[in-house]
Amino acid sequence: MPHLGRYPTPVTELTHAAAAAGLPRGALLAKRDDLTSDVYGGNKVRKLERLLEEAKARGARRVVTIGAIGSHHVLATAIFGRAEGFEVDAILAPQTDTPHAEKVARVGATLGYTAYPVGSFAAVPLAVARRMRRGAYLIPPGGSSVTGSLGFVDAGLELAEQIARGELPRPASVVVALGSGGTAAGLLVGLEQAGLLVGSGGAPPVELVAVQVVDPPFGSAAHTLSLALAIRRRMKAPLTRAAITRLSQSLRVVRAYLGHGYGSPTPEGEAATMLAARDGLTLDPTYTAKTFAAAVEEARTRRVSGPVLFWMTLSATGPFERLLSGAPPLDALDPRLRRLLRAAAPQMP
Ligand SMILES: Cc1ncc(COP(=O)(O)O)c(C=O)c1O
Description:
Low-confidence stretches: none
Structural class: alpha/beta
Shape: globular
Number of domains: 2
Distance between the termini: 26 Å
Number of strands: 12
Number of helices: 13
Strand content: 15-25%
CATH topology of the largest domain: Rossmann fold
Bound molecules: pyridoxal-5'-phosphate
Order of helices and strands: EHEHEHEEHEHEHEHEHHEHHEHHE
Largest sheet: 6 strands, mixed
Radius of gyration: 19 Å
Mean pLDDT: 95
C-alpha cells in the first residue's frame, strides 16, 4: 500500500474554542486529520492509499474520478494519483461559488489532471462511460467506495489505540462531516471493531454524529449504514443481528446544519469558523464549518459525560497555501471551468 500519509494524526484539545463557547476544560477535542500529509492533508489521504493500491494491483494506468469544481477529493486524487504515476481524468460538475471553491478550482488548474466539465450531475454517468476505457480505474465521488472507506476503518482503530495509550479520554461522541459517506461509514466500522460502540467500565458507548453537508438523497443514515455493512462484508466480519443493531444505534445523522444546501455557507458555520480559529484551525464553509458548529452544540447539550471529538477533515492551510501560491488567478482559468462556479448550484460531494 502506498504510504501517502503520516499516522497516527494527533488529537488536540480545543481549549480556547471551548472557553469562548462557555464549555468546561476538556469538553472539545479535535482529531487532526488536517495533518495527514505535508503535501495536501485532510480525509482523502486515508482513502487514496487504499484506492491507488487497488488501481495499481489491477494494472490501471489512469484513474477517472468525479466531483464538483471545488472538490477537495478531486484535488487530492490529482496530487496523489499523479505522484503515484497515474494519469488523472476529472469529471467536474458545477458548484456554488465561494472564495474557498474558487481557490480549489485555481489549484486544480496546476495539478496536471485532464478536466471534463459537465453542465450538471445528470450528465456524469455518460461522461464516466466515455472515459472508462481499458486500463482505467474509477474512483467514485469522494473516494467513498468500499475500498476507499477501509482507510477510515483504520482511522477508527487508530483512535482506539490512542485512547488505550491514554492520549485522550474516551469521547462521548465523535462528530464528523457526512458527504459521500465513506469517512463516516468507515469510522463507524472502525469504532465498532475496536469495541468502542459498547459501554465499558461505566463509560457509555461512543456515538458517531454524522453531520449532513450534502443535499438529499445523498448523506442519509440508510446510505451510510449500508456502506458500513458492505465494508464489514469485505472484511469478512460476521454480520449478526446484534452487530447491525449496534451499528444503527451508534450512528446519528444530523441534518440541521445544511442550510440552503451543499457548499452554501451558513451563519452557524461562520460563527464556528471564528471559534475554531482561536485554536489555530482553519475551516471551510462546505464541510468543516458546519460540522464544527454541530460539534460545539453537541458539547453544549450532550446528555452523557465525556468529551466531544471533532474529526477535522480539511487539509491544513500550510500545504494548501503552498499549492495556491503557484496557482493562476481566477481570470486565467479555462472559461469552461470558470463557468462551473455558479451563483447557486445544488450538488453532490
Ligand atoms: C474537507 C472535507 N470534509 C469532509 C468530507 C466528507 O467526507 P465523505 O465524502 O467521506 O463523507 C469531504 C468530502 O469531500 C471533505 O472534502
